[in-house]
Queue: 2 jobs
Job 1
Amino acid sequence: MDDAGPSNFHSLRPPAKRMPFYVRFLASTALVLVVGTFVATATDFVRRHRPGIAPEAYLLPQAQQILLPGLGIASLVGSCAAVASYRHRRNAARG
């Protein structure tokens, strides 16, 4: 095996530049929103679910009041983070 083996491969790449604070903040916020939505959904399921109640009685309100708004906002914030990251990388490549 020559000198450019797997152990030396990573040293040939330039170090990755850190994303700006607002990009990291947006990405972290999107992740927290997704996790929080699923925690709220699970909590609501435990609170509403009772034997003998039809699942439609609590699944539809749960989807309308928790899942759709929570995941919708998370996808919007995540999209903003992706666009901000793309623009930052594009501007950094231009110089």
Note: Residues 20-94 form one domain.
Job 2
Amino acid sequence: MGNEKMTIFYKKRTLEMCGTCQGEQTLRFLGDDEEDMALIYGLIIVDYDAFVFTNRRGFELIRDENGKIIIKMRDEFKESFMKYISA
């Protein structure tokens, strides 16, 4: 997939992920509601990761010590995922 990107949409107040899509997207798809919805929803564009893309509910967005939004695997997802990795 090379240099492909994906867009993650989230609620600004809670950082809850609302959706993902391949490529670099904007909120323009909301048409006339774009300005109003931009008050509630944000987006980040990151390198495409098929695992995150297909297992979105296993990840959450958090702010790092510098305030940057990053993707983190949820602890409960990590525990269930680790069952399938042999040592």
Note: The mean pLDDT is 91.
